[in-house]
Specification:
Blueprint: H1 8-11, H2 15-34, H3 38-84, H4 90-117, H5 119-125, H6 127-139, E1 145-150, H7 153-157, H8 161-182, E2 186-193, E3 197-204, H9 219-229, E4 233-238, E5 244-251
Parallel strand pairs: 1-2
Antiparallel strand pairs: 2-3, 3-5, 4-5
Helix pairs in contact: 2-3, 3-4, 5-8, 8-9
The structure holds adenosine-5'-diphosphate and magnesium ion (MG).
Length: 253
């Protein structure tokens, strides 16, 4: 199998370098769109989607870092000043305790939101490791039993970072659905590299749902659009009382 040629975005060494490709790319994208050659059009559209995902993830990283690095120290400082306040009445003592606890909760929430936002840096290192960590966290809660089967870690790590990130977000969304809606006892995640594509499947033995009825949420729609961005295929099989199984296949190039 010949290695797929990497795009400028994938080989960019820094966000700035990547963004300059995007800037330059926007003009050339317009020119390419005007092209009448269908092959040129198809390739440029794919590149364009990759740019969008890249920009989105860069922005998420930036917001995550900002939240963590600039807001949390301010809240910690507010806590220090609060220590200096000497309450006199029972009401004031209660108020001080409440403010203290609200600030701590805010710090904790920001930490958790920002670690979600900067997750893309981690997927670049190890998707298998990240999913393992995620499943371990869920196992600790005893909600359901969770199994993770995967292809060799070093093979998975060679995949395009944007595809790894998309798969991670898809899995996150579906696990969220399982926790929210399924009442499942067992969940199985598979991440398998095949000849021409990577396949992610997530199955549960919960209450299932009628897939013929229209859905109002955006979770499944997000999964579908993320899959489409990479020319992948999504399949969801479910029936009431028969669990749910989601299967995503994304080609390597
Ligand atoms: N694993 C699952 N088990 C049972 N029902 C599910 C599962 N996944 C999705 N659903 C159903 O599909 C609907 C749409 O899901 P989604 O688009 O993620 O929106 P939301 O989670 O916000 O309702 C859910 O409301 C739920 O009824
Ligand atoms: Mg959902």
């Amino acid at each position: 199998m010949t290695a797929a040629k990497k795009t400028n975005l994938e080989t960019a060494k820094s966000p700035h370098e990547g963004l300059s490709y995007i800037k330059g790319g926007a003009d050339s994208y317009k020119a390419l769109l005007d092209s009448t050659n269908p092959k040129v059009k198809a390739v440029s559209k794919k590149e364009f989607y990759k740019m969008l995902v890249y920009i989105q993830e860069e922005e998420r990283k930036r917001i995550g870092r900002e939240l963590h690095d600039s807001v949390n120290p301010l809240l910690a400082l507010a806590n220090l000043y609060l220590e200096l306040v000497q309450p006199n009445t029972a009401k004031e003592k209660f108020a001080k305790k409440q403010v203290f606890s609200v600030i701590l909760t805010a710090i904790e929430n920001i930490r958790s939101i920002s670690s979600q936002l900067v997750i893309s840096q981690k997927t670049e290192c190890g998707l298998v490791q990240l999913i393992t960590e995620m499943t371990e966290k869920i196992s600790g809660t005893d909600i359901f039993e969770i199994k993770f089967i995967h292809s060799k870690e070093d093979l998975v790590s060679k995949m395009c970072p944007l595809i790894k990130l998309a798969l991670y977000r898809i899995l996150e969304e579906q696990l969220n659905n399982i926790i929210k809606h399924s009442r499942a006892k067992h969940v199985e995640i598979k991440l398998i590299l095949k000849k021409v594509n990577i396949c992610l499947s997530v199955s549960d033995d919960g209450v299932g749902f009628d897939t013929t009825k229209p859905v109002t949420g955006i979770g499944l729609k997000n999964i579908a659009s993320r899959t489409k961005q990479f020319n992948g295929q999504m399949q969801i099989k479910s029936e009431p009382d028969k669990g749910c199984s989601l299967r995503i296949q994304i080609p390597f190039s």
